[in-house]
Amino acid sequence: MKYERLHREHIPDGLALAAHAEAYRLEYNTVRPHEALSWNRSLEVHRGLADPAIPNFDRPEFLPSS
Question: Are residues 9 and 24 in contact, defined by beta-carbon separation less than 8 angstroms?
């Protein structure tokens, strides 16, 4: 956490540190895919929306050319 989020900017006090840590926790669990979970997001695996053994890659959408 400290190298990905906390060392990027100056954090003036404990309240700001708590806010940064909470924002990182939310991003880590809801936005960021995890290699150990076959590139699924941990919240989706926890809620049963994704299988941690089956990759859930975003597939490119191919639109018609005409």
Answer: no
Whole-angstrom Cα distance, residue 40 to residue 33? 5
Helix, strand and coil content of the chain, in percent to the nearest 5, comes to 45, 5, 50
Say how far apart CA 39 and CA 46 lie, in whole Å: 14
Instruction: Provide the 8-state DSSP code for 3.
Output: I
Better pLDDT: 29 or 5: 29
pTM for the full predicted model: 0.65
**β-strands 33-34, 40-41 pairing:** antiparallel
Q: Kindly report, residue by residue over 18-31, the tens digit of the pLDDT.
A: 998 899 899 989 99
